[in-house]
């Protein structure tokens, strides 16, 4: 191969890799991707992601710059032979990435990641709002316990898609004041929300991007998730686990009210059911 | 014949085709415990390990009821143990170059192995007569499934045993040259061990 | 050995062959056929994702079952997503990279006449053929092909009532997978035995080329990790057809009907699946890295940097891969403390991978790079390893994964690792070893067109998928625009589709080049790339039995430009010059010490 063509190829490759590097760094670096953080732990979770963006970004750029430098330096023309590197220096060179990545990854996980994780799976505060969310193909059914603070008994045999989607047992008095809503969830701002997640049929996953919340729902298991919304507004609930043909349209809305609006809403609804 | 691979230096008589393929090629560590067989045992072990883990997890379910195993499984265990002993006797006979006795021991081992399978089917029949079927309880599901999968491996082992029986009847094994028989024996003992393990597992969980 | 004749007749020679080279080529060709199907599916998927409600009358004429009044049906969309993943992972990448190159290259690089069990090898290939046919035929049965995702999580995959694809299609899926596992296990046993027992005289473990090392580690993982999936498949089959409740809990209500199951736990399946699923990623990725090392050394005219540290890293990766499967399940509802363990262990995998990545890049240090098509793909692989590998940290960190789980970030990440890295490994290997396969060269100009049309588009497309993931876009959506919050992102979906269509077109150039070169390519000599490892010491293509006189190995596989030899390299079978003075003064002396056992 001619030396000229060899040089052209080395330069072209260098441009390709640098171009891809810039595309990646600029794209990842844009702060506009994530929806606004609307829960207490969301900004901390975003902090974890930002930490990763910075640290992996440094490694990524370093690796590509060295790769491109080698391509340009050693990709053109004949080079004098040189002895192989010694086993010792190779071993020393492997310490660098090990220590560097150990610091990046374990510091991130242990000191930033796990505290957020612990908060998400942590203790439930006294004043938490408890809502049961039942997933079924392909809708979300929220249930508030009503003034008595207790959920009524449900029976699979009584489930009726239209009239009684949860299968509430009329024989159980505590269920009479339960408030059931389809594809809507109302929560007060700045108060922890404890969601008791159930599924009637297959796996679903409760996900609200703005809250940085995602929790699979497994039939036969009682799983809960907790978060504290801190920004009033309306957000989209999505199903994040493939659940069948209607998976793509298994959406809902979560409306975060101020504390007083929430009480008013709850009062209106409860009076409506009486 | 300087080109016989080192690992099969003990082989006399007709050279098996594999040695021919490898020609001057050395087989450094092909001893009585070859990699292929060991890896096979490893993969089979992982299969039963996965079932064990599943059983321990599934046992946490509210509907776990242990049903007393059909008593015929204890007879089957004795049959399989007898078969294992017979195979070992056959190897011992080959080591002493008593080939006709080794054929008889192998035949006994085969018959006992077949009887084991018949007995396992009998166990299924006994449970079915009691009204215990595959879906009746998770414990029953595991029993039917694990005996079937173990049985399938035993059938494979019996195939290998029939093959060694035929080779043995043709006089192919000598005191210094009976790798095939040894490999079959290792697999067969392994199947026996797995059965005892499953029996313990199904009796205590 | 007078009775070892090469096989005669077309059937024994090319169809039911026990020759490792023929079987290797059979695997690679089968993978290409399956690859065409899987790539075709991806085109239909991308059409749907980019233009969800658009009518495609022409496609309806071609696939009347898949479209209704010109619009794709959701059941067919989910079948395509499922089958694209399954076919790509198991029937394309596994077959081409592990079974294909494993068969073709292992005996040639270790100096063996064939595999340890040639008959088992043939059996293994002829088990894959029915497995592939069954997998493909599932598109034709009632209810369509399996549609529960390539992970096939129950209850969705267990209940035909819950999903049309979970009928006959899912049964065939399980059957095909069972056959695949049987075949792959036979192959792994064969590789393991061959590499450990049939090496040429002098071929110590530390003189093995990296491709063989990575295939050895892959085989060990294959033998140990596949059985749990077998167990899961058997139990899922029994749940579907035997009325058992291994994975199905009580109180299931599907379509208003209460189902008669009790006590099972769906999470058990996920654990069993990912116990295989995670090591499987390394089964696929590691051989691609091995090929990259070999190609970079040959065309960089430079020994691999850090041979020993790479081997140690490979073993560490293998060990870690068996104990981190739970990072696929951070949001699954398993105990959060278990999640913490899995997170801490998972991110440790970046350590050995960082060593491997650094060694790949450092192998270019003081190199004298020759840009062949194989080398271009190997270099692209290095870049992709960096991009994809670092993305893994986001997913391995449990807290961040809550946001990224089941989003397009995951899709972008695994397409980088087991799409681009493995795909580029396959391409590098094909261009590099084509002379050993058919005694001819592939067209290098078309090869460059293939590289340039592939690299930019696939990188840009899969990096863009990360952006969608950063924006929270969920995966496996038949119509992403049904979410108000994803509608502003739809332009990215169109952009990604266009990029991928270019890349798909490039693959047709590759297949055309492959087919044409098989019969009409420039004839290749014994050692066209001046490679130092053993496969280049025999004819192209090698005869039955590979060598007339078996080679004896005297040195490591990568002695390029280290001792001032006029040819610039020393083949592995070149005897060491015995004079003491020579080895003391020659720079190669160091190399020789290092490559000893």
Please specify the SSE layout and strand pairing.
The complex is a heterotrimer of chains A (274), B (205) and C (597).
Chain A: H1 3-29, H2 40-74, H3 87-120, E1 129-136, E2 139-144, E3 179-182, E4 184-188, E5 193-199, E6 204-208, E7 213-217, E8 223-227, E9 233-239, E10 252-257, H4 259-273
Parallel strand pairs in A: 1-5, 4-10
Antiparallel strand pairs in A: 1-2, 2-3, 5-8, 6-7, 6-9, 9-10
Helix pairs in contact in A: 1-2, 2-3
Chain B: H1 17-22, H2 35-59, H3 72-95, H4 99-129, H5 138-169, H6 179-204
Helix pairs in contact in B: 2-5, 2-6, 3-4, 3-6, 4-5, 5-6
Chain C: H1 10-15, H2 20-50, H3 57-62, E1 67-68, E2 71-72, H4 74-110, H5 118-137, H6 168-197, H7 210-241, E3 253-254, E4 257-258, H8 266-300, H9 307-321, H10 336-348, H11 350-362, H12 373-396, H13 398-404, H14 408-438, H15 444-470, H16 490-520, H17 580-585, H18 588-595
Antiparallel strand pairs in C: 1-2, 3-4
Helix pairs in contact in C: 2-4, 2-5, 2-16, 4-6, 4-7, 4-8, 4-14, 5-6, 6-7, 7-8, 7-9, 8-9, 8-12, 8-14, 9-11, 11-12, 12-14, 12-15, 14-15, 15-16
For this entry, give a set of tags:
heterotrimer; A: 274 residues; alpha+beta; 5-stranded mixed β-sheet; 41% helix; 21% strand; elongated; B: mainly alpha; 6 helices; 70% helix
Description:
The complex is a heterotrimer of chains A (274), B (205) and C (597). Chain A has helices at 3-29, 40-74, 87-120, 259-273, and strands at residues 129-136, 139-144, 179-182, 184-188, 193-199, 204-208, 213-217, 223-227, 233-239, 252-257. The mean pLDDT of chain A is 92. Chain A is 41% helix and 21% strand. Chain A has a 5-stranded mixed beta sheet with strand order 3-2-1-5-8. Chain B has 205 residues and is mainly alpha-helical. Chain B is built from 6 helices and no strands. Chain B has helices spanning 17-22, 35-59, 72-95, 99-129, 138-169, 179-204. In chain B, helix 2 (35-59) runs antiparallel to helix 5 (138-169) and helix 5 (138-169) runs antiparallel to helix 6 (179-204). Chain B is elongated and about 60 Å long. The model of chain B is unreliable at 1-31 (pLDDT under 50). In chain C, helix 2 (20-50) runs antiparallel to helix 4 (74-110), helix 4 (74-110) runs antiparallel to helix 7 and helix 6 packs antiparallel against helix 7. Mean pLDDT of chain C is 92; it is low at 579-597. Chain C is mainly α. Chain C has a two-stranded antiparallel sheet with strand order 1-2. In chain C, strand 1 and strand 2 form a beta hairpin. The chains are: A alpha+beta (274), B mainly alpha (205), C mainly alpha (597). At the B-C interface, helix 1, helix 2 and helix 5 of B face helix 6, helix 7 and helix 8 of C.
């Amino acid at each position: 191969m001619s030396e000229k063509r060899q040089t052209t190829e080395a330069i072209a490759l260098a441009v390709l890799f640098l171009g891809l590097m810039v595309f990646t760094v600029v794209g990842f670096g844009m702060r506009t991707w994530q929806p606004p953080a609307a829960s207490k732990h969301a900004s901390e979770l975003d902090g974890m992601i930002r930490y990763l963006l910075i640290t992996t970004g440094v490694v990524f750029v370093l690796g590509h710059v060295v790769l491109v430098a080698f391509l340009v330096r050693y990709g053109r023309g004949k080079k004098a032979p040189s002895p192989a590197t010694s086993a010792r220096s190779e071993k020393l060179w492997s310490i660098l990435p090990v220590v560097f990545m150990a610091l990046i990854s374990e510091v991130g996980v242990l000191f930033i990641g796990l505290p957020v994780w612990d908060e998400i799976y942590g203790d439930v505060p006294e004043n938490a709002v408890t809502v049961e969310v039942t997933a079924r193909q392909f809708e979300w059914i929220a249930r508030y316990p009503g003034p008595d603070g207790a959920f009524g008994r449900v029976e699979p045999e009584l489930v009726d898609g239209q009239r009684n989607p949860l299968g509430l047992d009329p024989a159980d008095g505590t269920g009479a004041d339960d408030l059931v809503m389809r594809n809507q969830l109302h929560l007060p701002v700045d108060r922890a929300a404890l969601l008791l997640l159930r599924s009637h049929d297959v796996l679903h996953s409760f996900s609200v991007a703005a809250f940085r919340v995602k929790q699979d729902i497994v039939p036969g298991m009682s799983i809960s998730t907790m978060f504290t919304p801190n920004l009033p507004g309306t957000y989209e609930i999505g199903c994040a686990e493939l659940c069948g043909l209607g998976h793509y349209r298994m959406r809902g809305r979560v409306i975060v009210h101020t504390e007083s609006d929430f009480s008013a809403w709850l009062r209106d609804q409860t009076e409506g059911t009486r | 014949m300087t080109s016989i691979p080192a690992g099969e230096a003990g082989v006399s008589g007709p050279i098996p085709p594999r040695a021919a393929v490898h020609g001057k090629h050395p087989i450094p560590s092909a001893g009585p415990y070859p990699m292929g067989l060991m890896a096979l045992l490893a993969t089979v072990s992982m299969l039963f390990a996965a079932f064990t883990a599943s059983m321990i997890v599934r046992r946490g379910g509210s509907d776990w009821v242990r049903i007393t195993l059909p008593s015929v499984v204890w007879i089957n265990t004795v049959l399989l143990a007898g078969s294992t002993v017979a195979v070992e006797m056959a190897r011992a006979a080959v080591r002493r170059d008593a080939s006709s006795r080794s054929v008889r021991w192998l035949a006994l081992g085969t018959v006992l192995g077949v009887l084991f399978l018949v007995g396992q089917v009998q166990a299924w029949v006994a449970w079915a007569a009691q009204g215990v079927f595959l879906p009746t309880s998770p414990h029953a599901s595991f029993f039917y499934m694990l005996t079937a999968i173990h049985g399938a491996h035993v059938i494979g082992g019996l195939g290998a045993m029939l093959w060694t029986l035929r080779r043995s009847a043709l006089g192919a094994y000598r005191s210094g040259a009976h790798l095939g028989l040894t490999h079959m024996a290792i697999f067969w003992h392994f199947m026996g061990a797995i059965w005892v393990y499953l029996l313990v597992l199904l009796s205590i969980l | 050995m007078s009775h070892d004749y090469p096989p005669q007749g077309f059937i024994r020679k090319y169809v039911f062959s026990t020759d490792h080279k023929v079987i290797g080529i059979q695997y690679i060709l089968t993978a290409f056929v399956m690859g065409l199907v899987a790539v075709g599916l991806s085109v239909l998927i991308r059409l749907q994702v980019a233009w969800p409600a658009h009518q495609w009358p022409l496609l309806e004429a071609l696939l009347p079952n898949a479209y209704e009044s010109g619009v794709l049906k959701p059941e067919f969309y989910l079948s395509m997503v499922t089958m694209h993943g399954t076919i790509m992972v198991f029937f394309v990448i596994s077959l081409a990279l592990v079974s294909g190159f494993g068969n073709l290259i292992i005996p040639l690089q270790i100096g063996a006449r064939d595999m340890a069990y040639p008959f088992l090898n043939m059996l293994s290939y002829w088990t894959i053929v029915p497995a592939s046919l069954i997998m493909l035929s599932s598109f034709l049965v009632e209810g369509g092909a399996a549609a529960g995702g390539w992970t096939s999580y129950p209850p969705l995959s267990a209940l035909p009532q819950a999903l049309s694809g979970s009928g006959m299609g899912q049964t065939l899926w399980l059957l095909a997978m069972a056959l695949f596992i049987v075949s792959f296990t036979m192959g792994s046993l064969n590789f393991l035995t061959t590499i450990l027992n049939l090496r040429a005289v002098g071929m110590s473990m530390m003189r093995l080329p990296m491709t063989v090392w990575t295939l050895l580690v892959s085989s060990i993982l294959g033998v140990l990790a596949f059985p749990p999936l077998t167990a899961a498949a058997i139990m899922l089959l029994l749940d579907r057809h035997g009325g058992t409740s291994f994975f199905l809990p009580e109180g299931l209500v599907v379509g208003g009907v209460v189902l008669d199951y009790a006590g099972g736990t769906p999470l058990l399946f996920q654990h069993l699946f990912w116990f295989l699923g995670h090591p499987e990623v390394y089964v696929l990725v590691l051989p691609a890295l091995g090929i990259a090392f070999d190609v970079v050394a040959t065309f960089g005219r430079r020994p691999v940097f850090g041979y020993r540290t790479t081997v140690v890293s490979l073993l560490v990766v293998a060990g870690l891969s068996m104990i981190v499967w739970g990072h696929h399940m951070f949001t699954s509802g398993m105990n959060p403390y278990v999640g913490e363990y899995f997170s801490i262990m998972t991110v440790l995998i970046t350590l050995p991978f960082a060593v491997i990545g650094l060694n790949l890049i450092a192998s270019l240090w003081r190199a004298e790079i020759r840009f062949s098509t194989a080398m271009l793909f190997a270099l692209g692989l290095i870049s992709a390893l960096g991009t994809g590998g670092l993305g893994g940290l986001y997913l391995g960190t449990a807290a961040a994964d809550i946001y990224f789980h089941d989003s397009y970030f995951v899709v972008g990440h695994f397409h980088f690792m087991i799409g681009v890295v493995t795909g580029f490994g396959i391409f590098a290997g094909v261009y590099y070893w084509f002379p050993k396969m058919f005694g001819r060269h592939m067209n290098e100009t078309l090869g460059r067109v293939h590289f340039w049309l592939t690299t930019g588009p696939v990188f840009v497309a899969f990096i863009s998928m990360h952006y969608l993931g950063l924006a929270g876009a969920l995966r496996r959506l038949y119509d992403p625009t049904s979410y108000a919050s994803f509608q502003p992102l739809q332009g990215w979906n169109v952009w990604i589709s266009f990029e991928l269509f270019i890349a798909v077109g490039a693959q047709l150039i590759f297949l055309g080049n492959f087919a044409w070169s098989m019969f009409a390519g420039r004839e290749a000599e014994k050692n066209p790339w001046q490679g130092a490892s053993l496969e280049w010491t025999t004819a192209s293509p090698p005869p039955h039995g590979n060598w007339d006189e078996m080679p004896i190995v005297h040195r490591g596989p990568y002695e390029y430009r280290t001792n001032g030899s006029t040819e610039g390299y020393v083949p592995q079978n070149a005897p060491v010059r015995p004079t003491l003075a020579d080895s003391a003064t020659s720079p190669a002396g160091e190399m020789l010490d290092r490559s000893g056992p």
